[in-house]
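Data card: per-record layout.
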Amino acid sequence: TMKNGNGMYRKLQNFVNREIKSSKSNYYCNLIEESKGNSSMVWKAVNEASSCNVSSSILQYIIASGVQYNDPKSIATVLNDYFASVGRLLAEKFSRSLNHVNPAKLNVSEPVMVSFELRTHLLPYNACLLYYKSLVLPILDYADMVWGDKDNTVLMNNLQVLQNKAAKLVLDKPLYSSATDALNQLSWLNLKQRRHFHRCLYVYKCVNGITSHKLELSKNSNVHRYNTCCKDHLKLSSVKQNWGKQRTCYHAFKDWNALESDLKNSGTICQFRNNFLKSFNL
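The structure for this 282-residue chain is written out next.
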């Protein structure tokens, strides 16, 4: 009887701990989402997320290039040099022309892997998640409507590998574990789904007059009077070459036409985003 009581106590204790951890995670995720676009709120969210677990946020040592640093001054110097090198790396990629923008040359693997491998020594879960959303994900999403899914499958797969590794490191899972399970546990869209969402969101903004554009938004019903199932679809450009299908006026419109009518008729951007995520069961 005593053993059964102790076993039940441990099960209930583990259940309560999991619920508390899940509630904290949801709270800080919502806080981060609501803080977007407000710099003061972003810093407040960063400070609160970073200080939510005092015991795990105290840095004891750091390993860089195979060398362990223990004293605060050396640790501060290593971190300062690291983040300064990230800034220099990004600054080198800016130019007056966009012709040479290539996300493969943006060495995002180093910031992702180094920063997340330091998680167990430096960042608690919520701070690590905030770092990913604020510094890593914007690089993976940068101008993805321009270069994403343009018959560059190898590049797309390489970028997806980085997101898979980041998800496992955020959850402190081994790298041989399932990437799909990690993404589902974090309720993250994979990069292909995110690019699809960005194209559809852009068309949603154009259709509803939220953003300025030079696209010709003409429905099939404006061209003919036939009562077909595609009458409310946006008219696609007549293209013969494969490169023509990769233009925004074709690629994004085609993705938009494939959406359900209820999703396209969402009242606000937030509703559109929520309905889109529901379509992926997230």
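Known properties of this structure: The first strand starts at residue 62 and ends at 64. Residues 53-57, 93-106 have pLDDT under 50 and may be disordered.

See the next section for split statistics.
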